[in-house]
Design goal:
The complex is a heterodimer of chains A (410) and B (341). In chain A, 50% of the residues lie in helices and 0% in strands. By secondary structure, chain A is mainly alpha-helical. The termini of chain A are far apart. The radius of gyration of chain B is 26 Å and the shape is elongated. Chain B has 341 residues and is mainly α. The termini of chain B are far apart. In chain B, helix 5 crosses helix 6, helix 8 runs parallel beside helix 11 and helix 11 packs parallel to helix 14. In chain B, 70% of the residues lie in helices and 0% in strands. The chains are: A mainly alpha (410), B mainly alpha (341). The interface between A and B is medium-sized, with 29 and 34 residues.
Chain lengths: 410, 341
């Protein structure tokens, strides 16, 4: 190894190897570096400025390739010479080759085969393919462990028990910390849990009381509700009973009153009805309705006829009297008059009793003469002379229209 | 190379799964910042440290001041299981303190937590339910739970969840129903509780009996309980071995027996005979609830007759009971049993 610079003390530089100058490139590149050079250390380092490996010039422009650098003129000359020499050698070789004489005129040299067996000469080159295949790539076997050659000195050391440190003493503080921290944490957590447990205990006691109170409260509420409902129901019932009783009393009173009110309703109704003639004996009724009116009417008619007759009679009488009077007067004046014979008053029963009779007067008389016989010529003096005194006689002859039918029995 | 000198200082507590705590006042704020980074490992480590720190009550107020709960609620939707697990755990620890509960209610974190009810991991769900249970124990929290319509999903989960979580749900529902029972009635909670009365775990049995008692507070609940036939099962539970179960089922029967229908159903099931031995039980709650139930049943004429003959003397023995509530209840019971119209 080439000698290095004098070793400096370790305190300044801590790199493993000392800095070394770059050695010059030597022509025989692959010499064993360990072989000692003959010329010692004169070729150890050269001037770095003249080192071909260093790029000189501006570093900010792209570096041209060292190949394009101006080579040594010596190199150029040597190259040119080499080229010339190669050319000359080639020319010489061409001239050296032996030739056969030129062909005679009119002939031509032809190549011909002179072997025993003719060969076909062709341009096609006979080819033969030969293949060769290497085996598939095997895995590269692991590189064998590089065991550098042993160098240096072997040194060994052995640490015996107790020489380095005492485990028991050293471990104590570590353990203290570990255990201490764990215990601290555990204590805190236990504290929490105990607190929780006591709180829960309190809570449990409170809840007990609370539940009891709640049940009590609800029970009382329920009781109250039930009692209230019961009371209300009873009251309702009572009220209903009372109402019913009053209603019944009212009904009874009403019934009694109605009963009494209506008790003489029936007799009074009956009385009223019988008063109004609703209850009648049919025969009696019939007699009353049918017979008696007819009877009365016929009586009436007969009476009126009688009355009429009487009126007629009265008129006649008056007429006679007047005529007699006149006669008498005439007689008195003329005493020679012949006395008129008094026409016999036949029965007054003129079939067609034509007189303007005052029906009312006749009716009144009729009533009094109800029981009289029908059609019997009444000979009584009660003829209603006063009525006859009216000027009925004057109208006797005129008025004919009287209801003769009325006189007829219906 | 370790020296051979024994140091006087403690070695540092280096747990690689936890983020190192900054010194003093910077501890919690730095953790809060770390919670909001996107790198998963940082978030996980910060969460682990936070969970441990929050156990100390002094840190809770500081954490809330630094809006740690907001960062935690943002992490609830994280894709990583550990992050969700630890953030729900941290929220649970926060909610076990009063100011924490207030902060959670004010920041409206409950809907975010509710979305995790259906999470695939049971540890996440367990923490969520723990948090809800803590929240529900104060009236505001219970109101918050009811207003966020959490009652219906909780009831639905009762049938499908693990036992441990069922316990928590029963607790949360108990407190929620103290605020408002309508939601629970509408979504068929009574049926769920009825099914759980057969469970093998006595704690679940007692809690579902207690929840039935809560649900029977309104009239509709009582009627539904009668429809489903809770009285029969509850009277069977009066013979149960566990004290709590006996106490709570006696209370539930008492609540149902307030209506006339309930009374007659209970009398049909011979409840009075079952309750008489419980009047002398050593647990005060059992005594109290049984006396109360006998009082309710004695409102009916048949019940009064039975009580008069069988248990009047027993109850009179408790007029001087050590527990004030029991003595008071015994006095009321005697009054009711000996009441004449």
């Amino acid at each position: 190894m080439a000698a290095t610079l004098a070793q400096q003390s370790d305190q300044v530089y801590s790199f493993s190897s000392q800095p070394r100058a770059v050695q010059q490139r030597r022509k025989p590149k692959y010499r064993d570096p360990f072989d000692q050079q003959v010329d010692g250390g004169t070729q150890a380092y050269g001037n770095i400025m003249h080192d071909k490996r260093i790029v000189r010039g501006n570093t900010y422009a792209p570096t041209t390739m060292p190949a394009h650098a101006q080579p040594d003129p010596l190199e150029i000359q040597r190259q040119q010479e080499g080229k010339r020499r190669a050319l000359a050698r080639k020319r010489a070789k061409g001239q050296l080759r032996a030739r056969s004489p030129e062909p005679v005129e009119g002939r031509k040299h032809v190549d011909v085969q002179t072997e025993l067996y003719l060969e076909e000469l062709s341009d096609r080159v006979e080819e033969a393919d030969v293949e060769c295949q290497t085996d598939a790539f095997l895995d590269r076997p692991p590189t064998p462990l590089f065991v550098p050659a042993k160098s240096g000195l072997d040194v060994e050391t052995q640490i015996y028990e107790g020489e380095l440190f005492d485990f028991d003493i050293e471990v104590k503080p570590i353990l203290e910390v570990l255990v201490g921290k764990t215990m601290e944490q555990a204590l805190l957590e236990t504290l929490e849990e105990e607190e929780l447990a006591s709180l829960r205990q309190q809570q449990r006691a409170f809840e007990e009381l609370r539940n009891a109170e709640l049940v009590e409260q609800q029970r009382l509420e329920e009781q109250e509700r039930r009692h209230r409902e019961e009371k209300e129901r009873r009251m309702d019932q009572q009220q209903k009973v009372v109402a019913q009783e009053t209603e019944t009393a009212n009904k009874i009173a009403a019934q009694a009153f109605a009963h009494s009110y209506l008790s003489d309703l029936v007799p009074s109704v009956f009385g009223l009805l019988s008063d109004h003639g609703y209850f009648y004996d049919p025969v009696e009724r019939d007699i009353e309705e049918g017979f008696l009116p007819w009877l009365l009417e016929s009586v009436d008619s007969s009476m009126s006829q009688q009355h009429l007759g009487r009126l007629v009679l009265d008129g006649l009488l008056r007429e006679v009297v007047r005529s007699r009077e006149q006669t008498f007067e005439a007689l008195s004046r003329q005493p020679t008059e012949v006395p008129q014979t008094i026409p016999e008053n036949g029965p007054l029963e003129i079939p067609s009793g034509e007189t303007n009779i005052d029906i009312d007067a006749v009716g009144e008389d009729e009533e009094e003469h109800v029981g009289e016989e029908v059609g019997g010529p009444p000979n009584d003096a009660q003829l209603g002379d006063t009525d006859a005194a009216r000027p009925a006689s004057a109208d006797v002859a005129d008025t004919v229209a009287t209801d003769a039918d009325g006189g007829e029995p219906s | 190379m370790a020296g051979t000198l024994i140091s006087a200082r403690l070695p540092p507590n280096i747990d690689v799964t936890k983020a190192p705590l900054a010194y003093g006042a910077r501890a919690i704020p730095k953790l809060n910042e770390e919670l909001n980074v996107t790198e998963l490992i940082v978030v996980q480590r910060a969460l682990r440290t936070l969970c441990d720190e929050l156990h100390d009550p002094e840190h809770i107020a500081e954490a809330l001041r630094n809006q740690v709960h907001i960062s935690l609620s943002a992490l609830l939707t994280h894709t990583d299981v550990t992050v969700r697990h630890k953030s729900t755990e941290a929220l649970y620890i926060l909610s076990s303190h009063c100011i924490g509960r207030d902060a959670i209610l004010n920041a409206d974190i409950i809907p975010g937590l509710a979305r995790l009810l259906g999470d695939k991991e049971d540890i996440v769900r367990r923490n969520v339910h723990l948090c809800f249970e803590m929240m529900s124990e104060i009236p505001y929290g219970a109101l918050g739970i009811v207003l966020n319509s959490l009652v219906t999903p909780l009831v639905k989960k009762l049938s499908t969840e693990l036992d441990e979580i069922k316990l928590l749900i029963l607790n949360s529902l108990h407190f929620a129903m103290m605020v408002d029972t309508d939601d629970a009635l509408q979504c068929g909670a009574m049926q769920e509780f009825y099914d759980l009365l057969d469970h093998s775990d006595p704690l679940i049995r007692s809690r579902s009996a207690r929840d039935i008692m809560d649900l029977c507070k309104p009239l509709a609940g009582k009627e539904e309980a009668l429809d489903i036939g809770c009285v029969e099962k509850l009277s069977a539970l009066l013979k149960d071995g566990d004290t709590e179960v006996k106490a709570k089922s006696a209370g539930a029967i008492g609540m149902i027996a307030i209506t006339t229908d309930g009374k007659y159903r209970a009398l049909k099931n011979n409840v009075i005979d079952l309750l008489i031995p419980l009047v002398d039980h050593e647990n005060s709650e059992v005594r109290l609830n049984s006396i109360k139930t006998i009082t309710c049943l004695a409102e009916a004429p048949e019940g009064r007759k039975m009580s008069l003959t069988n248990c009047l003397h027993i109850i009179q023995g408790h007029l001087e009971d050590e527990t004030v509530a029991v003595a008071y209840a015994a006095g009321i019971a005697v009054k009711v049993i000996t009441w004449l119209p």
